[in-house]
Amino acid sequence: MIHTYTGSIAQGKKIEASKWNKRKQVKRMAAAGATLLGIVLIILLVSASFGQTDVYAADTKPIEHRTIIVEYGDTLWGIASDYSTGQFGIKEYIYKLKKLNGLKDSSIKAGQKLILPD
Q: Where in the sequence is the domain holding 92, given as residue range(s)?
């Protein structure tokens, strides 16, 4: 059933519809603002959690590794030969050296800082 309004009744219905649309728009904007605020709060909480310092048990200390600065002509094999304590073979020491420093291959450059495995 379709209603057709004429005259002042039609004008009143248009005004009511306009008010209704504005209310819906305001509700949508409020919902979008609340969603955006929620996203911002989540991002802030996540980023704040990454800034936390490490907490250690009372009787433990953080592991401190020795570091070296790569000099021109150095190779992982040479570094492993010089610094391996005999606990590991050279190949295993190189593997640990690469893993500890996030190296994908055996390429190193002069001036690069390397953390040495214990």
A: 66-116
Three-state SS string over 59-118 comes to CCCCCCCEEEECCCCCCHHHHHHHHCCCCCCHHHHHHHHHHHHCCCCCCCCCCCEEEECC
Please give the pLDDT value at position 60.
67
**Run of H or E including 51:** none
Q: Taking a C-beta distance cutoff of 8 angstroms, is the pair 94, 106 a contact?
A: yes
Half-sphere exposure of 15 (CA within 13 A, CB side): 6
pLDDT band at 7; cut points 50, 70, 90? low
Mean pLDDT within 96-102: 93
Confidence of residue 69 (pLDDT cuts 50, 70, 90): very high
- Same domain for 48 and 71, yes or no, is no
Residue 5 shares a structural domain with residue 44: yes
User: Which CATH number belongs to the domain containing residue 89 in this structure?
Assistant: 3.10.350
